[in-house]
């Protein structure tokens, strides 16, 4: 997974901007600053977890089309049958609350895609809403071979993959991302992972059809003097906070995407 120069490819006219948000307010900020859709989750600092049904419904009311991250716990992406059944139920609940799509992923212990789990999750989505879009999330970046892993997708009903090309950031993984896109021309490859507005032109040139970023900033603390650490590890007052969607970053990403597509 070396990250050399990515081969050039024309940026598609349909290139879109997705913002990861953790609240209805974040969805609204994303919409007001040019996002085409949002991925709603909670626990962004943990890599994202399934949000509540109430949050999904409120985000649907306040923002652009909502795709919901379905991940029942932090940690690895190897799930047992009970966890898969729980996530299938969360898929159904999210779509019934108005989401346009779901974002799922699962691996086997040896680093391949867990096609049985993915088939169950995608099937739950199609049974609930035949028009729902199903995205494979960044579990693929933990696969032993992200490019080869995508060969398992045909027939599962998954038409989109969110990936950093198996690297810490999408721009570092742009060569692998380009190989993923080239090997799967019918797949919507969304570049995500540490994306900054200045990365967007390079990611589209590598073959991404859309870009995904959290556009987040730390919320201003609203607490009295003094702080009792909460949770394991004795979190400090500076770290024990939450993130909010930064509209200035969303707007900058929108401008970068539009400028790139316009100049192609």
UniProtKB/TrEMBL annotation:
It is found in: Cytoplasm. The keyword Cytoplasm applies. Signal peptide: none annotated. Its main location: cytoplasm. One of its GO terms (cellular component) is cytoplasm. InterPro entries: CutC-like, CutC-like_dom_sf. One of its GO terms (molecular function) is copper ion binding. Keywords: Cytoplasm. Pfam families: CutC. Belongs to the CutC family. This is PF03932 family protein CutC. The lineage of its organism: Bacteria, Bacillati, Actinomycetota, Actinomycetes, Kitasatosporales.
């Amino acid at each position: 997974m070396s990250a050399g120069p990515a081969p050039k490819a024309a940026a598609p006219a349909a290139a879109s901007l997705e913002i990861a948000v953790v609240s209805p307010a974040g969805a609204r900020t994303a919409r007001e600053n040019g996002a085409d859709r949002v991925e709603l989750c909670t626990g962004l600092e943990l890599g994202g977890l399934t949000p509540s049904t109430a949050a999904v419904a409120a985000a649907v009311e306040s923002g652009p089309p909502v795709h919901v991250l379905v991940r029942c716990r932090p940690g690895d992406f190897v799930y047992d049958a009970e966890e898969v059944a729980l996530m299938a139920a969360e898929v159904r609940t999210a779509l019934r609350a108005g989401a346009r799509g779901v974002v799922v992923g699962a691996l086997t212990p040896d680093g391949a895609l867990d096609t049985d789990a993915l088939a169950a999750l995608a099937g739950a989505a199609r049974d609930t809403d035949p028009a729902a879009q199903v995205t494979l999330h960044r579990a693929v970046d933990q696969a032993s071979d992200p490019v080869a892993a995508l060969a398992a997708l045909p027939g599962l009903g998954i038409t989109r993959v969110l990936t950093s090309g198996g690297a810490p950031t999408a721009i570092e993984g742009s060569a692998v991302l380009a190989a993923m896109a080239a090997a799967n021309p019918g797949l919507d490859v969304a570049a995500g992972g540490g994306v900054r507005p200045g990365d967007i032109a390079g990611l589209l040139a590598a073959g991404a059809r859309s870009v995904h970023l959290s556009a987040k900033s730390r919320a201003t603390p609203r607490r009295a003097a003094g702080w009792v650490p909460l949770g394991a590890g004795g979190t400090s007052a500076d770290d024990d906070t939450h993130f909010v969607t930064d509209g200035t970053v969303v707007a900058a990403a929108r401008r970068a995407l539009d400028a790139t597509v316009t100049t192609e």
